[in-house]
Design a protein that fits this description.
359 residues, alpha+beta, Beta Polymerase, domain 2, Methane Monooxygenase Hydroxylase, Chain G, domain 1, 2 domains, 7-stranded mixed β-sheet, two-stranded antiparallel sheet, 10 helices, 9 strands, 53% helix, 16% strand
């Protein structure tokens, strides 16, 4: 069967006489929104990134906020050239899979934040995924903010609308947008940790229920999801502290106090996540101890029944040696007597094991 045209990152493809030719996807396909903000208010109209920054620099006031969703290298190149973005930061923004960090390139900041989303499920004992992660990269300059989003759940449209309803905060400039994005991400951390805490509570109840049979692999899976959350939360503390303590000139004094508040919330989240990790480790130890105890009980029962069965086996082995001179061989009641002795001995041994809770 001949190959069919495919839709890839570079765009749609068409068939010609020499094979498949890619059709470039315009930059507008990756731009979620582009707005110009002056004195905290958004200017009307639709803007390209070139026209937007020209308008801001002509006014010498305001800033541009461009939102991108998973652009490729070719599509982001025009924006990188227009705004003078550093090539290393652009490469990180395109390829994603970065740890949370804050980097400064001359008069530009580049910040990476990991986003998380709680995946709803029926029970933590059967869930295959609890936390889904994504990324938001933010370029911040004197008169622009460029956000690059990876993942389906990390949308910023609602956040943008909320900020547009608060012109006083937007008037503080691009740093205020960076703060609001960081606050939005950390608030999601709080929501996710609350949901994960409920799951861990359910798992804890199930582990210590005598009638339950929790698979330790499920707790390992939950521990892995908590580690995913920890990788998002832990490295973000240092960038927020740098923004809050005034090491970055692009962040005005009025905005630093906001970052201190975000840092406090992040500390709360980090403490929760560390506690989750420790509790799950304890639950794993408890499950393994229950499994070991169950195996020990099974072995005790097996050993007890082996001991009981060994009584008639021993008697039968003695009388099976076929010697001519053995006790009671010529006695008419010898056989019933031996059976009675065997039964009584087995009952006595059984009672002893029952009294010692081996059976």
């Amino acid at each position: 069967m001949p190959a069919l045209p495919t839709l890839g990152r570079k765009g749609r493809t068409t068939r010609n006489g020499r094979g498949m030719t890619p059709i470039p996807v315009p930059l507008s396909a990756y731009v979620v929104d582009c707005g110009v903000y002056v004195d905290g208010k958004r200017l009307p109209g639709r803007w390209t990134h070139i026209a937007a920054i020209e308008e801001v620099r002509k006014r010498q006031n305001g800033f541009v906020w461009i939102g991108l969703h998973e652009p490729d290298e070719e599509q982001i190149q025009s924006i990188a050239e227009t705004f003078g973005l550093h090539e290393l930061a652009v490469e990180d923004a395109v390829h994603a899979h970065q740890r949370p960090k804050l980097e400064r390139y001359d008069d530009m900041l580049f910040m990476v934040l990991k986003t998380v989303r709680y995946v709803a499920h029926e029970s933590p004992e059967t869930a295959n995924e609890i936390v889904e992660s994504g990324e938001i990269m933010v370029f911040v300059g004197r008169d622009y903010v460029i956000t690059v989003r990876h993942g389906k759940h990390a949308g910023l449209a609602t956040l943008r609308h909320l900020l547009e309803e608060d012109p006083e905060k937007l008037a503080l400039g691009p740093a205020a947008v960076l703060y609001q994005i960081a606050d939005h991400v950390v608030d999601r951390y709080l929501e996710v940790t609350s949901a994960v805490e409920d799951d861990i509570d359910q798992m804890e109840v199930a582990v210590f229920d005598p009638r339950s049979d929790v698979d330790p692999e499920q707790i390992y899976l939950m521990k892995r999801e908590v580690m995913e959350l920890r990788r998002a939360v832990g490295p973000l503390a240092t960038p927020l502290r740098r923004l809050a303590e005034g090491y970055i000139p692009l962040v005005p004094e009025q905005v630093r106090s906001y970052f201190r508040d975000v840092d406090d919330h992040l500390t709360t989240v980090h403490d929760r996540v560390v506690a989750f990790d420790e509790l799950l480790t304890t639950l794993i130890d408890a499950v393994l101890a229950k499994i070991t105890l169950r195996q020990n009980n099974d072995m005790r029962k097996i050993s007890a029944w082996v001991a009981i069965i060994s009584v008639p086996t021993m008697v039968a082995g003695i009388y099976g040696m076929n010697f001519d001179f053995m006790p009671e061989l010529k006695w008419a009641f010898g056989y019933p007597m031996v059976l009675c002795v065997i039964v009584i001995a087995c009952v006595v041994v059984y009672r002893i094991f029952r009294r010692n809770r081996w059976l």
